[in-house]
Specification:
Layout: E1 6-14, H1 21-29, E2 36-37, E3 50-52, H2 65-68, H3 73-88, E4 101-106, H4 112-125, H5 134-138, H6 142-151, E5 157-158, H7 166-179, E6 185-192, H8 197-205, E7 231-232, E8 234-242, H9 243-248, E9 255-264, H10 277-290, E10 297-301, H11 308-322, E11 330-332, H12 335-338, H13 345-359, E12 361-362, E13 385-386, E14 391-398, E15 402-410
Parallel strand pairs: 3-7, 4-5, 4-6, 10-11, 10-14
Antiparallel strand pairs: 1-8, 1-9, 2-3, 6-8, 9-15, 12-13, 14-15
Amino acid sequence: MSKRRVVVTGLGMVSPVGNDVESSWNSIINGKSGIGELTRLNKDDFPATAVGELKGFTIEDHMEKKEARKMDRFTQYAVVSSKMAVKDAQLDINESNADRIGVWIGSGIGGMETFEKQFETFLNRGYRRVSPFFVPMMIPDMAAGQVSIALGAKGMNSCTVTACASGTNSIGDAFKVIQRGDADAMITGGSEAPISQMAMAGFIANTALTLNQDVTKASRPFDKDRDGFVMGEGAGILVLEELEHAIARNAPIYAEIVGYGSTGDAYHITAPSPGGEGGVRAMRQSLEDAGISPQEVGYINAHGTSTPYNDKYETMAIKEVFESHAYQLAVSSTKSMTGHLLGAAGGVEAIFTVLALKDQVLPPTINLDNPDPECDLDYVPHEAKKADIAVAMSNSLGFGGHNATIVFRKWDQ
């Protein structure tokens, strides 16, 4: 059975570097960081104070306050970004096509903020005062559920929860839904709102977060002085569509999604397998799925978390997959500017990868002031640069040993 071709026709985003796709991308290609001092919580309660918060974002600008109060932040971000993406795709969802349009949006930890607030209510005021919306606000699948309701999409509705690989796995899974013929379009990506007391405390406790007090320099992937990631929030949503369906309605096409790989380390709950072995297999799977040779890849949007093991092992994995070509392609980590959006990272970074292909611009890795000798690839340090690239890849690696890779090809009309 021949595989149906799938293209990207719409993009939507809220992120630490901008409250829409255009402003976020402009920040990225200009090397502008969205990382700053923690303001949502009392920063004196935590030794880690660098975060990637949304700025100037007001949910009441996008929906009624009564409606917003029934959603955790991560769901709000998903709904807002999904509406942007569908509008950008010029996709009209109605009774004639609703059952052929689905939603697949991942989240790593879901409604952590809601859980904290409702547990505090329970402790102080008893079970009767816990909100009846507590559970539907908290569960990670509710981003997909609320997007489906808001947009009227009645096709496959799902959520992938694979920690920091959630967004990429969701996009890959949605791609396969269309490819095999179970939908004509999918609204997909990731959403996360993890800047909460317990999420901060938990990641600090397992030494994952940077303690760098110079917040502008705190996220420094592939730098020898990196000491942990910066937590960020937001959502990145794409509309994926079967090629002929998109052409028939004269939809805008950003890029073609051509490959997906997903593997497990079977090694450790938080640490990556030595040498990035699981990532090696995910990248190879994605290339095989795409029918593309390693030499055709021109750019990789790396997972690049700014943690000691990830950056070293991801570099090793890239060198194993691409061999001598690893030194010819560009690799960058946009987390140097956004921070790590956990389950939303894959969605946001997929958008940056698609736009890198469309605009033929390589996003930079900022704060790469003292390169780690063990990280010796072209990480596009400090400034974006123009390039002629036809194929690009995006990697996501998550706690639990989850590895996901997606591959995009430049769209030539």
